[in-house]
Amino acid sequence: MSTIIPGDGSTAAVRDKRIAYNRFLLLVAGFGGLLYGVDVGIIGGALPYLEATSGLNAGQLSIIVAAVLLGSVISTLFAGLLADWMGRKPLMTLSGITFVISIPIIALAHGYGPLFFGRLLQGISGGLIGVVVPLYLAECLSASNRGKGTGIFQWLLTLGIVAAALIGIYYSYRVEEVIKVADAATVFAFKDQAWRRIFWVSLPPGVLFVIGTFLVAESPRWLFRRGKKQAALTALLRSRTAEQANVELAEMEETAIATKTRTVAGAKVKDSLLRRKYVIPFVLACVILFCNTATGVNSIIGYNTNILLQSGLSDLQAHWGYVLFTIVNFLMTIGGLVLVDRKGRKFLLIVGTAGVIISLGTVGFLFRQSEKLNVEFREVFQSMVTPGQTLALRFDPAEASKLLAEKSEAASAISSSRAALTVIYSYGDFTAATNVARSDDPVAPPINITRESCVPNNKLEAFFKNPFADVNAARTAPLKIDRALISAVPAAHRGWLVAISLYVFMAFYALGPGVCVWLALSELMPTRIRSNGMSIALVINQVVSTTLAAIFLPVVSKYGYSTMFFLFAGFTVIYFITAAFFLPETKGKTLEEIEEHFEGAKARHA
């Protein structure tokens, strides 16, 4: 039996202390959400300057962006096991320390390797935070505060993305000022410092989160499962009255006894995992999580500034566009949290996915209108390849005019003062793409195609880039220009149409999938398979997210932005059909009622 504490400890001092501790728990959770949001959003503001100064090609930059998602996959696989083994509190501390360590590794990096490793650590931290903080809150907060805690975590996650965007816009203004008064070399040096400082600024929230984790108690439910009943009661008393603590401790004991009785009786063995109440919700969960990420939300957040730049906006306009994008996400998340218990998960998912389909299709159409004017210059660029199998070119208005003159009829709609160039090339079996070069960017670095920018340095890197390629043959293969596309940079008003369409996308995503998916899935999964089933579904989610981020720039370079946005819209159609016709409404239903729904009428009456 548990230890009974008499009295409710409701003196003013004790009550105030309890209230303060509950608020502190929410604050620590908020910092966890803030870090998760920074993990997702920080690359958006830093990427244009990293792209301009790092010397990395499009494929390498894609991997740098995707490394966070890859790290999340790794940590998601083991987060549940680690939380059970070492405890919720130590794992939160570890996740915060991992984030803190990642910042100097990235900010001081020179070269692809350190950047990749630092971003991988950021992803590992984000994956751990995304699992352990909501788990910790669910086990530590009282029933009256649990919804508030989850809401604050989600809300401050979007605030983290907004904060990352504001940091980016600040440095965009700084870069704009330097461009007006300095030469190209000074501008290059300042851009190199800008992306490093953007990462440095994200360090303080990580430090505060780590400090906060040292000051909170361990999860009482984890302590109880470890046989530490008195410690569990002490942890409960920090946030509850004595009566509430005693009731919850008694419930833990009853649940433990019931579980032990069922195990002894062999109920778990008889309850086959192949029953439809397990299989159908598991498959449904995997489809929903796959499609939730396949809307392209992470890629659109990570590449938002680049997308807006290519749509026709200036550097400063693109950064402001990204700030507005994150603010829409932040505000509409509040709307989703208000409506989810009133309108239901299914309704908001249907409305949200419908809006996402329309907005993604609109963005794809707008890009298609400009991309259909692309002119191919493959033969021209192949003739520029040097005997050393390299190619270097500064794409300024004069060079653009010279190139466009060679195909004057086809290129008549393209102005040399607002032209964009992308070159796709290969050495043997390895293919790469240059970053998009704009002739109206006076400080853009020249296009510089070398074997080192395409062929991996070792067999391990070669395996992840192309497992079927011959890296030794690629080291001596000639340079082949696969495509060299020159296109018109759209007018600024078209860029703002793209931006508005992306705001509509973010509004509907935040209102529906952004808020509802995790609530719906946690309610959807039967109790017996919830932890393992959600782990598998989350891994699928992270793998899809990583894959999309890794292929985004290469696909855009080869086929255009329109292709990616139409692809995202296609996956969202599957999402809409799943939500509309297969997903049951879980609002107001007990877990047993939901399990009965999937068991089917025949099984219920058997």
What does this 3D model show about the protein?
This protein is 73% helix and 5% strand. It is mainly α and 606 residues long. Among the domains are: 10-216, Up-down Bundle (Growth Hormone, Chain: A), CATH 1.20.1250.20; 223-272; 376-489, no CATH class. Strand 3 and strand 4 form a beta hairpin. The longest helix has 42 residues, at 12-53. The chain starts with 11 loop residues before the first helix and ends with a helix.
Summarize this structure briefly.
The protein contains 26 helices and seven strands. With 606 residues, the chain is mainly alpha-helical. Among the domains are: 207 residues, MFS general substrate transporter like domains (Growth Hormone, Chain: A, Up-down Bundle); 50 residues; 114 residues, no CATH class.
Q: So, the CATH homologous superfamily of the domain at 10-216?
A: MFS general substrate transporter like domains
**Arithmetic mean pLDDT:** 78
CATH architecture of the domain at 10-216: Up-down Bundle
Q: How many helix segments? A: 26
Give the secondary structure arrangement, pairings included.
Blueprint (H helix, E strand, L loop, with lengths): L11 H42 L4 H29 L1 H20 L4 H29 L2 H39 L2 H18 L1 H13 L4 H6 L3 H9 L4 H24 L1 H4 L5 H19 L2 H6 L1 H8 L3 H29 L1 H27 L3 E2 L1 H5 L8 E3 L3 H10 L12 E9 L2 E4 L3 E2 L8 E3 L9 H7 L5 H4 L4 E10 L3 H20 L1 H12 L5 H30 L1 H21 L9 H9 L1 H5 L1
Antiparallel strand pairs: 1-7, 2-6, 3-4, 3-5, 3-7
